[in-house]
Amino acid sequence: MATRVLLTIDTELKWGRHARGASWQENLALSCDPAGVGISFQLARLAAHRLKACFFVDPMPALVHGIEPIRRMVEPILAAGQEVQLHLHPSWADPANPVFELVGLDRRRQLELIRTARDLLIEAGAPAPIAFRSGSYAADLATIEALAMLGIGYDSSHNGSEHPWPSALPLDPRRIAPALLDCVVEIPVTQIEQPSGRLRHLQICAVSSDEMHAALRHAADRGHPVATIVGHSFELATRGGRRANPILVRRFERLCGFLAAHRRRLPTACFADLADLPLDAEASPLRSPALRTAARMAQQLWGNAVYERAL
After folding, report:
1. For the packed helices 39-49 and 246-261, what is the interaxial angle rounded to 10 degrees?
2. CATH 3.20.20.370 for the 4-308 domain, yes or no
3. What are phi and psi of 17, to 5 degrees?
4. pTM for the model
5. 229 DSSP β-pair partners
6. From CA 217, how far away is CA 3, in angstroms rounded?
């Protein structure tokens, strides 16, 4: 059986820009379409390679700015034929006294916020969500309980490299195979194991192309049921959002090309495609060799010096 690949893009307005006084229009431009390499660019490259992706959209800024900026995020994603699911950063619920991690809230408040976010996402034009990822991967059993009560059947918040806080689900940090929690299917973010023994998750800005491709080959060779990759709407630009980061743009392009070339063994999928996903599979992270890790660290140092600090 092929290893399905969930290419997930967390799509949101940045809280820090709001806190510094940016209008929602400026925040939207710099968070969702910065330097021409945001979701419009990502959607175009996905279409060119005939790939599927899931965009986890955070609708909570609607509590501050109204529904319009959320509609502007949702509409192009749906028009491109890609999937929209639910993301949530709780800071927007009380800007005067922001709580930044969902796990800092009790069961009742988590349920209230997830229900509010679901309703806002639907108001913005998205179908009722069936999958959820908490901002900062901050989820615990209270989160799972709330999702089950709301009929949201998938969660993708377990990130072993952020365990046990804020990613606080009671799963082994090395768990990368799907797991059933309550009646919710947990789809962990895929990890690699570094020479130090520490885990590093498959995020476009966090691992090199070589690491990403090797982890995907590892998953396919060993018959993992699914591999989950993380990106962000703003990730291919520099931190200020004013300039593209060529290293990350090339990395995204290479990932799309790799997935297109290996679509038979590694077909991209949406959460709506996962009804037959096996829940009894075993999977373990790829152990990444020291030379590959060192090459990525050198690339990151050079990229920061040229594209970030130079600004």
Report:
1. 30
2. yes
3. -65, -40
4. 0.96
5. 7
6. 10
